[in-house]
Amino acid sequence: MAQRLPPEIENKLTRFQSLQAQYTRLVQERSAVEAEIAEVQRVLKLLEEAGDDAPVYRMQAGILVRVDKSKLVQELKDRLEILEIRLQKLKKQEEEVKKQLDQIAKEIKEFQAKTTLGKQGAGS
Questions:
Q1: What is the pLDDT of residue 115?
Q2: How far is 58 from 71, CA to CA, in rounded Å?
C-alpha cells in the first residue's frame, strides 16, 4: 500500500507545481515582449534609414493607410518604452518566482533525505 505524504509536503508539492506553471508563463511572456522589442527596434531603424520625405504606410483594417512618419516614430518610441518597462517587471517577477521554486525544491529534497535516512536506519 502506498504511503501518504504528510500534508505539509503535499502542500509544498502543490505550491511547487503552481509556481512552475507561473514561471513558465512568465518566461513565455518575457520571450514575447523581447521579440516585440526587437521588432519595434527594427522598424525604428528602417524608418530612420528612410528619407525624411519617404512615404510611410501602416496596415489598418486590412488596408495600407499613409501616416505621418514623425507621429509613427513617436508612437513606436512610446511603445518601446512601455515594452522595456514591462520587460523589467517580468524579469523581476521571474526572478522572485525562481527564488521561491528553489526554496521549495530545497525543502522537498530535505524531506526526501530525512525519510530516506529514516528508512535506512529502520532497516539496519
A1: 83
A2: 12
Residue 119: all three cell numbers together = 528508512
- Residue 19 and residue 100 in contact, taking contact as beta carbons nearer than 8 Å: yes
Kindly give the parts of the chain with pLDDT less than 70: 1-2, 121-124
Asked if residue 90 lies in contact with residue 33, where contact means CB atoms within 8 angstroms, the answer is yes
Q: What residues contact 107, with CB distance under 8 A and at least 6 apart?
A: 12
Helix (H) or strand (E) holding 25: helix 7-49
Q: In whole angstroms, what is the distance from residue 105 CA to residue 49 CA? A: 51
Positive or negative, the CA dihedral 79, 84, 88, 91 is positive
Between vectors from CA 56 to CA 51 and to CA 62, what angle results, nearest 5°? 160
Which of 22, 24, 31 has the alpha carbon at shortest distance from 83?
A: 31
**pLDDT, position 123:** 53
**Is the pTM higher than 0.70?**
yes
CB of 56 within 8 A of CB of 67? yes
> Cβ(59)–Cβ(72) under 8 Å?
no
